[in-house]
Amino acid sequence: MTKRGWMLFVAMSFIWGIPYLLIRVAVRQLEPAMVVFGRTSIAAVVLLVLAQRSDAIRPALRHWRPVLAFAILEMAIPWILLASAEQHLASGLTGLIIATVPIVGAITAFLLGDRTALRPARVVGIFIGFAGVAFLVGNDLRGDSAPPWWSIAMVLIVCVCYGSAPFIVQRKLADVPSYGVIALSLATVAVLYAPIAGVSLAHNHPTTKAVLSVITLALVCTGLAFVVFFKLLDEVGPARAPLITFANPVVAVALGAILLDEDVTLATLVGFVLVMTGCWLATRRSQTSVDAIEDGVPAHAVVG
Questions:
Q1: Which of these, 11, 82, 218, 232, could form a disulfide with 43 (CB 3.0-4.6 Å)?
Q2: What's the rounded Cα separation, in Å, for the pair 179 and 57?
Q3: CA angle 113-127-239, nearest 5°?
Q4: What's the CA gap between 100 and 290, in Å, rounded?
């Protein structure tokens, strides 16, 4: 990997490791719908400008049905659930559970007909990864101050959405410019949540910290994140770019501990090791697959 590639990798690892902290801060003052609306509306402005400059909007509009499906599955459903769950969950725990998304992706690929998606090593990885989640959740749900079980369930649904949504892009939007897809998706979700957010805002008086958290979430963790991620894809290819998945939880746990005084216990560390080991086993590719991807074959065309 080049020096520029490493810089982009580190940037993305941090940028997509801090949303859980920002959401946790924002939902202390704002309703989840307001957080989703603020994140999508502000980011949509940035991405729509970039998409218009690259003439990426018209191609995306011609495929509005899969774009809408992607927007709902990647943003509309998971972001409201994530914000609602973090009203009760620690940001670090949320980040660790979300780290299992690649495992969900492997299972989804298998269910969609790719019988090579669950080789023996990957099956072992799935069991280890889910064992790590079970260990984390079981430990967190103990005691009088335990969060409600449905907050955990919400995050698990988010994992299913995140693990499934990319297949819409791979199967229906592979030839559509990414900027157009993301920009229209953000704008669509912003429009959907605008009425709910308007009602919520009338009953909220957010602090400056909450407002700044939403703005940062929109501009840095959504708008800038997609721009940097596209550059990372161009620099290192689709085979290596997803490796940020293994660094994001580290950032989430560290920031939660440093800035929000969240506990990092032995159980947290054990769960982290299990989840990361499971993700690595469940998503690692053979060298043949990696070579084919880097030679220009689409990532979804080579599995195994």
A1: 218
A2: 8
A3: 55
A4: 21
